[in-house]
Structures are given as structure tokens and as C-alpha cells.
Amino acid sequence: MDGVFKGNYKKGGIGGIFRDKSGNCILGYKMPACGYTSTYMELPALKSGLQIAKHHNFLSLEFETNATEIPQLLSYNNYSLYSNLVNECKLLLKELENPLIRHNFREGNRLAHVLAMEGDKQPSSTPLSAIFHPPDIFWNLIYRMTKLEHLLLD
């Protein structure tokens, strides 16, 4: 999951990808969003992902974010600027049997980032879009990433 943020306009987008244990994309999501910081934008992306996981009864989950602050915010009971969203995410995490939330470098989060950028391009009134088949914009990126993964593994 990922959030993108354009600081001058407080506008951005959120997006995420669900994959099976083999790494195949099974569902994506995107939506425009507003926020005040890049860290804040990651939280609605996580919350939306958690809501989708709950709705589709996805089990054995792991969530990855390129924002190192998110796992920290969820681990401590600090009352920050983000406390409402953090508490909503914590409740959803508990309902989903506390899946792992871990940091992933930006390079490993490219597909979610592309969806978040697509969400940013939508009018602000656009609701969350679930994507069951990767859109055309993904095919080239998926091909390049798969080719790179094979080079690294060989």
C-alpha cells in the first residue's frame, strides 16, 4: 500500500495491491485523498487495504509500506496528530488477527505507488476503486519487475 502527497495542494492519492503467496496480483485499489503530510497519506492507504481485506475475508496477510513511521505509529500508544486514523487501523488490524505490517523499500512498492499516483489523478469526489485485473499501465511495469527479479535470483 502507498500514499502519494503533493504538499502545496494537500492533495494526493492512495493505492495498494493484494497478491497471493506466489506474488500474483489478485486485487488492487486506488482513490484520491487529502492530507497534510506524506506519513498521513500512508494511513488512509492502510485503512482502505484493511477494509478491503476484511470485506473479502483475506487471511494470512502481510502489509508492506515504504513509510518507516507507520509500523512505529501502530506499535505505540502515542497520541499524535494521526491518532484517529491510527486507532481505526489498530481496530481493523485486531479484527484481522493482527497481520504483520512491515517496511519495504520504495523499489518493492512500485505497483502500489503507481496506483496511488493514478488515484491522485482522479477528481476528489471519486470513491475507492477496486481493480480485479491489472490495468494496462501495469503490464510494462510488471514485465520489467519480473525480469529484474529473475536476474537477481539467477
Short structural summary:
InterPro entries: RNase_H-like, RNase_H-like_dom_plant, RNaseH-like_sf, RNaseH_domain, RNaseH_sf. Helices cover 44% and strands 23% of the residues. By secondary structure, it is of the alpha+beta class.
Topology readout:
Layout: E1 2-6, E2 11-19, E3 25-34, H1 38-55, E4 62-65, H2 69-75, H3 83-95, E5 100-103, H4 110-120, E6 129-131, H5 136-153
Parallel strand pairs: 4-5
Antiparallel strand pairs: 1-2, 2-3, 3-6
How would you describe what is shown here?
- By secondary structure, this protein is an alpha+beta fold.
- It has one domain (2-153): Nucleotidyltransferase, domain 5 (2-Layer Sandwich), CATH 3.30.420.
- Helix content is 44%, strand content 23%.
- It contains five helices and six strands; from the N terminus they run βββαβααβαβα.
- It has helices at residues 38-55, 69-75, 83-95, 110-120, 136-153; strands at residues 2-6, 11-19, 25-34, 62-65, 100-103, 129-131.
- The chain has a four-stranded antiparallel sheet.
- α1 runs parallel beside α3 (83-95).
- The longest helix has 18 residues, at 38-55.
- The radius of gyration is 15 Å and the shape is globular.
- The model is unreliable at 150-154 (pLDDT under 50).
- Biggest sheet, spatial arrangement of strands: 1-2-3-6
Q: What is the rounded distance between the termini?
A: 28 Å
Helix-strand topology string: EEEHEHHEHEH
Low-confidence stretches: 150-154
**Name of the CATH homologous superfamily:** Ribonuclease H-like superfamily/Ribonuclease H
- Predict the CATH topology: Nucleotidyltransferase, domain 5
What is the strand content?
A: 15-25%
Structural class: alpha+beta
Q: What is the number of helical segments per DSSP (H or I, 4+ residues)?
A: 5
Number of domains: 1
Radius of gyration over all CA atoms, rounded: 15 Å
Overall mean pLDDT stands at: 81
Please state the second-level CATH architecture.
Answer: 2-Layer Sandwich
Number of E-state strands: 6
Instruction: Supply the CATH class.
Output: Alpha Beta
In helices, the fraction of residues equals 40-55%
Which overall shape is indicated by the principal axes computed on the Cα atoms? globular
* Biggest sheet descriptor: 4 strands, antiparallel
